[in-house]
């Protein structure tokens, strides 16, 4: 009656320790060998062996810390070398594609972006432009790319990066992961933009300490990403939900999706333009300027954005009651809302959500990453895989 | 540079194999040693050792299968012995408490229930009655109880079974798990009723093959339990969401929770009574009889339940769009809805939910467990722990 389960082979353990240590450095930044040993629960000799191996491969360097604390021999600082593991992050938005080369540790080494119009938004056009720009960026920065992460505003099958429907782009059934991967020749992962926004907030933004969070971002559409117990929430066959299409207003505006009064139709970018008396296709810069002006005139906020705030709050109550998150991060365009609007939405959640009361008050906060959240999330998506294979 | 992770000790492996095998028998029913070996990925000698140990302890028996397939020595059937591991399941509902002793394998060995009224609904009263009834049932059946699972219609902290708020019972801040456990002297776990309904459907009901499902049950309140990737969905600090309090109808009826137009106020039991022109406190039996009569007169269904069906469908669209489940199981009172109503709700989801379209059509089905779902779920909650410790 002996153990039939296959044992842990030394090779597996070594690889596991190596990627755990890299992940710690990538997310938490440089630290001493002693801290690594404590945080990872490994003994000093194991840490030394792993760090020595990584230093030999040029992935980390070691340095004497500038400030010594206490007596005794100082523990060496271990620093990840950004150029040693680089990923390409691509954020395909409705009006723009943003790209960045991101080094281990999260440093953005170089960027490129271009605007999209109806004619340049076709999948083939976008793929060609991404590939060309990737080569230019790579050559310019003289980096070796280890992986690619792509954010798309649509319903994505994670296994192979197949984009089922990206309505605001006008995309349907695009084998984006496969097509990009085939040309770029790097491992390419594709994720839903809201899910990647949530990942970014979790790893590098407002939700670093939270393991249950909702990230909500408004663009032409409205998307929400959910992390539960530290992991992205996904439904059947890996599809993520579409928070923008919870129904908040029966008999409301018709949504492209076939429903009426979706959260997206009531608090997306066009809805915000309408509330402000602007044309629905007002450029983002002008819209943000208008919101800034309004924030400086608090007397007008309630009459202008009162109803918008109600729909924002109503959707938040539904989300909080369903998912019991610790906090909700408002991202992207929603970061430009006047503080009074965010306060009022917060008030609505606290007044009307019994789950918020049960958990001691769900926090509603504004993203510090702003427009970069999805790009950062796309990089983290790529790093999840890359850190396993270094 | 050797493996620092603690190895798998033979004792752990033996215990792990034992509980995996018990879980297989508990959920899937009797099967041959050969099937156990295949399904659990263990070799025959390990299976033999585990089964022999369990047989010696009286937890299983072995028998020659009645039908022999093919030539050769027949593989012995392994049968769990229901009396050998018994849990007490308690379903605290708004109008009733139901209890059952459930044996390993899921067989209900004995039951007891009593109605609740305003005066007998107090936590102290309920606890006293549960304890007395447990002793009577135990003596009557001459069983040894290994654990207790309790279902409560409220917000429950799983760690210690603390009931934060069970509004329809009028309970607030009741240390139910602690109080029951202290008197019964058995390990006692408490769960939210909808979460346990979902667990029951997953283990023994309509969702055995699904790992992403939503269970929706209507009683005085409306509750929903969610299983994602085979595990219950829980938010911060283990709290589960409250699907009954997603907002479906702005400016709708005031809900006790502080919001208006919650899903619960529009499709709970009182709402169904109102739609049928019955008093809100119509007894369950009379309500179900009325629904049966209506099912036989399809011409009247749309005019009577048309609006009810719209709200049911609207909430389902929100839930499906947010969680992308493979199927939604309608439980409890909702199992009594005329099939035409369920068909129409299904139609609403298929027409209006883009996520349903993306996943190839979310299934909407009616629970085969009916009113027993939470009781079955409470038993499974207890067994989760008990099977680990046999």
Automatic annotation (TrEMBL), chains A, B:
Gene3D superfamilies to which the protein is assigned, alphabetical: 3.30.420.40, Winged helix-like DNA-binding domain superfamily/Winged helix DNA-binding domain
A family per Pfam: ROK
Protein name: Glucokinase
Family from the record: Belongs to the ROK (NagC/XylR) family.
Lineage: superkingdom: Bacteria
Keywords: Transferase
Molecular functions per Gene Ontology: glucokinase activity
EC annotation from Swiss-Prot or TrEMBL: 2.7.1.2
